[in-house]
Amino acid sequence: MQIPGIHHVTAIASDPQRNLDFYAGKLGLRLVKLTVNFDDPGTYHLYYGNRAGSPGTIMTFFPWPGAPRGRHGTGQATVTAFAIPRTSVGFWAEALCTEPYERFDEQVIPFEDPDGLALELVTEDSQGEGNEVLGFHGVTLSESGYESTAKLLTETFGYRLAKQEKNRFRYRAHGAIGSVVDLLCQPDKRSGSMGAGTVHHVAFRAESDMQQLQWREKVSSIGYDVTPVLDRQYFHSIYFREPGGVLFEIATDPPGFTIDEPFETLGTHLKMPAWLEPQRARIEATLPKLTMPPAAK
Ligand code: ZN
To answer: Which residues surround ligand 1, an ion (CB under 5 A)?
Structure first.
């Protein structure tokens, strides 16, 4: 049993419209689910992905209007990288007004979202044409020490050490998308704190509910405190904190985003779980109105 790669990354934002304009408008991702934060239903939970909303392409946000910025530092996923076709580097460098640079054998375009979340576009050789963002390349975890996290990735998750350059250790899973975890060993850097512009957690894929239970057993057996399985409507989740302090989740591929609306209209209507439906009118009245950016229509 091996983890194929990242399922989704969840981050904190401030203004929801600005977030939507950036990810759906500028980056051209599809808003695959418009829903509320189940623990705070007066605020949105926005899910972006590829056309199909496939695991490995899903970036999600809790936008809290006016949320103060967090601090980037150790114990965090400090950079989230999306894969792009190699031929699209020029297009994206111009669109984001950023110079690409070379790291390992890839071109990297670094940029930030409007809340200061650090992002990269990274070239992938084998996939895609045009200028489409293909899904995740991977994440960079900033750690004050990396060995225990490395051990979890290799001995438990089934990742292998693929490359190393200075204090950057690259681990790879076998999946075709979102397979990279870079550990950046930064013992002198101060720890991060949660807030707008920071990643809340990184979710890895389990291909079935059965596999997720096996993962729960396995991770628990090596000494981690793992939550029970939680129903997130579009997937089922377990959470635990990795040794460097980053919150990890293992999320199931099924049931996916078409469980409560058809593929064609994903993300166009506010969806909420059955237990919140009785409060829909009140919740809708609280939420700020959102307008789809022109490029995303
Ligand atoms: Zn999650």
So the answer is: 10, 203, 249
pLDDT in tens, 108-129: 999 999 999 999 999 976 667 7
Phi first, then psi, for residue 256 (nearest 5°) are 90, 180
Assign domain 6-296 to its CATH architecture.
Roll (3.10)
Cα of 92 to ligand 1 centre, how many Å? Answer: 28
The structural domains of the chain, with segments of one domain joined by +, span 6-296
CA distances from 157 to 93, 218, 290 (A): 34, 10, 39
For strand 30-37 and strand 40-49, is the pairing parallel, antiparallel, or unpaired?
Answer: antiparallel
pLDDT tens digit string along 39-91?
Answer: 999 999 999 999 999 999 999 999 999 999 999 999 999 999 999 999 999 99
SS3 277: helix
Measured between alpha carbons, how far apart are the two ends of the chain, in Å? 40
Distance 102 CA to ligand 1 centre (A): 31
